[in-house]
Amino acid sequence: MKKLLSLVVLLAAVMTASAQQLPDVKVENAQGKVVSMRSVAPGKPMIISYWSTSCKPCIQELNAINDAIEDWREEADFVVVAVSVDDARLKATAKAMAAARGWDFICLFDENQDLKRAMNVSLTPQSFVVDSNGKIVYSHSGYTPGSEEELFDEILKLKKK
Amino acid sequence: MKRIVLLFVAVATLSSLSAQVRIGKKGQLAGSFETNMIYYVDDSKVGETPEDQFGSHSFLKLDYTLGRFSVGVQGNAFLPVLQGYDDLGVGDTKFFLSKYIQWADKNYEILLGDVYDQFGSGLIFRTFEDRQLGINNSLEGGRVIGRLGKYAQLKALGGRQRLNTKYSDTWVMGADLSLSLADMFKMDETLLSLEGSFVNRMEKLDQDPMLDEYLAGLGQEKSVQLYSGRANFAWKGLSLSAEYAAKGEDMANSAAVAPEKGNAFLGEVGYSHGGFSFMGTFRQLEHMGTHISVYNMGINNTMNYLPALTRQYTYMLANLNPYQVNVEGEIGGQADVNYTIRSRENRYRYWNFHANYSTYYTLNPSQSATGARQRLWQDFNFDVERQWNKKWKTIFLYSFQEWNPYHGYEHRTYVSNIFVADVTYKINRKHSLRFEGQYLLSDEYEGDWAAALLEYNWAPHWSVFFSNMYNIDDMPANEGQAKYYYNGGLSYTYKRTRAQVSFGRNRAGYVCSGGVCRYSPAYTGVNFVLTTSF
Questions:
Q1: Chain A touched by B275 (CB under 8 Å)
Q2: In this complex, is the C-beta atom of A142 within 8 Å of any C-beta atom belonging to chain B?
Q3: Is any Cβ of chain A less than 8 angstroms from the Cβ of B326?
Q4: Residue B278 is nearest to which of A8, A31, A96, comparing CB atoms?
Q5: If DSSP codes are grouped into helix, strand and coil, which group holds residue B228?
Q6: Helices and strands counted in chain A (H then E)
Q7: A35 pLDDT above the threshold of 60
Q8: What residues have CB less than 8 Å from A83, skipping those under 6 apart?
Q9: For the packed helices A2-14 and B2-16, what is the interaxial angle rounded to 10 degrees?
Q10: In terms of CB atoms within 10 Å, which end of chain B has fewer, N or C?
Q11: Are the C-beta atoms of residues A144 and B463 closer than 8 Å to each other?
């Protein structure tokens, strides 16, 4: 165990930082068709936000993004992808909720959490900002009212690049 | 303790790197770390404190990707196992390492190692991880997926299933085929698919001479087959799906009277238009509980996924007595209606209305003393969410819950009425306050409860909360139990790293996540949770 950990520390120390590519995992779209993650919005910057029906702060964050989205869109062209990690118990509930809320997002359903696992999300809410080349440039976990602004700031930074 | 310190050093180093790490020209390393620690404090009101007063569950996951190739490991450390995770061994120090190596091409995928997958909704097979519940039933073996464009997909997998912190001697093989008729007939706007699965579970009955003979005498076979067939349709706002599953003779567990055949039907209908949506689910289950090993018990010893199809609450008092599925026999369903009205002039003003109803009954006469069908559960609830302006938001929830404490064996139910008010006030761009007031009204079981929560957020880093639950009435059911259950904590978030420390008294009860519930004994203690990814 000790050896394994020392190895991890060593590995981490010698490596240089760079951006991670969005994994190309299969997920279900709102219609129930299986799509691959990289084909969802090719060539566009994305905000990817993980949620579930039993995660209150996640829904708060999505609502906050949806409230501000028209103002944000005046300044930048991007899409919001809401990934529900609800399993068989609540997937139908999540679909019904997403449909009625009028979220101006691409809604995806990650029923057995394959995408969540591939993106190393251990706690929801977690949100990512991905650039138009599919590189993850920013991420935060947890939600406190107002922290959605950070996501938009990152989108604006991409525009300047 | 030394190990924990080492683990921390590793995590600190990893998380100090601002982004992901790259090895070579194209490869990249990513990962995550999570730890949950509890220090148990003596509290005469909740019973005995565990001997070493400390427990922790930690998870370190590392993935290396190079184009279509990926390889990864996940180490779990239980130092020692937390109270309530009885399957894992109370107070024991345990480690577990899972791993995978994968090639994912456009039309085929090959994975060797720990497989997470599910067939359909999981009625006959699901392997998954839920850290909060201490569930991980991954299949150690291999999986091959082949695709014929958008038209067809065939999946085959096999291996032995993980059971708690070991791999079991139970061998599982399965295959799943899905055909997209809509794509075959070029109906782009429509979803129309037919799917079918098969699973074989094989366990040699040679592990406990006395039990082996008993099981053989009852006719338990070492091999059990499960099948399922599914159809899905969606067009515009309408969606329909149906799934039927059947299972060969099998003992529910070693204490069961005899092996039984099982079956299940799940039907779902959904409709949405504008700000309106409706969802209805019907399900019937009969002897569908499927263990990994007949020699074992506990929530980890499950090969398929049979969640309780009811609303899952986020409010304390609405979650006091959650419904748990009756895999032996159950018939019922639920319905959800959502409606949103948003102001045309101002996006920041809207109403969300949501109503939900669920009810479940026993299926077989043998489940109740009188042979009559008994109600197991009923819940009618509605909530109204109103965003008044940029500053104020309110949610009101009402729930009527009726549950059967005897799982249908006797004709007796307890009723509770729950009221919740949830108010958020955004002081300015960074600061906000949230308050919850809750009341549970009941003449039965533990009587009335009241609860309150106050949360202060300072975006994007800090959050602090305090909550208290109070059991008002003196009833036979709560005799000798604590009256107050308080909890207070502080969390700090920096990008992908979040740390939370809290202190509180926790009530004995079911902790539910997804559709599975784990019984957690009462305790008072300090919790520390750290999660990070890189």
A1: yes
A2: yes
A3: no
A4: A96
A5: strand
A6: 5, 9
A7: yes
A8: A27, A48, A49, A50, A51, A108, A109, A110, A115, A116
A9: 20
A10: N
A11: yes
- Note whether A39 contacts B: Cβ–Cβ < 8 A: no
Q: What is the ipTM of this complex?
A: 0.92
Q: If you search the block for the tokens 């109740």, which residue do you land on?
A: B368
Give the containing element (helix H, strand E) for B130.
strand B129-130
Contact A32 B458 (CB under 8 A): no
Mind listing the pLDDT tens digit of every residue in chain B (534 residues)? 555 555 555 555 555 444 445 555 678 999 999 999 999 999 988 888 877 799 999 999 999 999 999 999 999 999 999 988 878 887 889 999 999 999 999 899 999 999 999 999 999 999 999 998 899 999 999 999 999 999 999 999 999 999 999 999 999 999 999 999 999 999 989 999 999 999 999 999 988 888 888 888 888 889 999 999 999 999 999 999 999 999 999 988 777 888 999 999 999 999 999 999 999 999 999 999 999 999 988 889 999 999 999 999 989 999 999 999 999 999 999 999 999 998 888 888 999 999 999 999 999 999 999 999 999 999 999 999 999 998 999 999 999 999 999 999 999 999 999 999 999 999 999 999 999 999 999 999 999 999 999 999 998 999 999 999 999 999 999 888 899 999 999 999 999 999 999 999 999 888 776 667 778 888 999 999 999 998
| Residue B496 CA to its chain's centroid (Å) | 23
Given an 8 Å threshold on Cβ–Cβ distance, is A146 in contact with B460?
yes
**CB of B385 closer than 8 Å to CB of A56:** no
Q: How far is B63 from chain A (nearest CA, A)?
A: 8
SS3 A152: helix
Contacts of range B103-106, beta carbons closer than 8 Å, 24 or more positions apart: B103/B68, B103/B69, B104/A24, B104/B68, B104/B70, B105/B68, B106/B147
Q: CB B429 to CB A140 under 8 A?
A: no
Chains A and B form CB pairs within 8 A to the count of 230
- Cα nearest neighbour of A15 on chain B: B21
> Is A111 close to B430, i.e. CB distance below 8 A?
no
Question: Do residue B63 and residue A118 have CB atoms under 8 angstroms apart?
Answer: yes
The edge-to-edge listing of strands for the beta sheet with A26-29 is A20-21, A135-141, A126-130, A46-51, A79-84, A106-109, A26-29, A34-36
> For B309, which of A89, A117, A142 is closest by C-beta distance?
A89
B128 CA to chain A: closest CA distance, Å? Answer: 7
Tell me if chain A has a CB within 8 Å of the CB of B346. no
Does residue A116 belong to the interface with chain B, where contact is any CB pair within 8 Å?
no
DSSP B17: S
What 3-state class would DSSP assign to A148? helix
pTM here is 0.92
| Three-state SS at B390 | coil
Residue A111 with chain B: CB contacts under 8 Å: 118
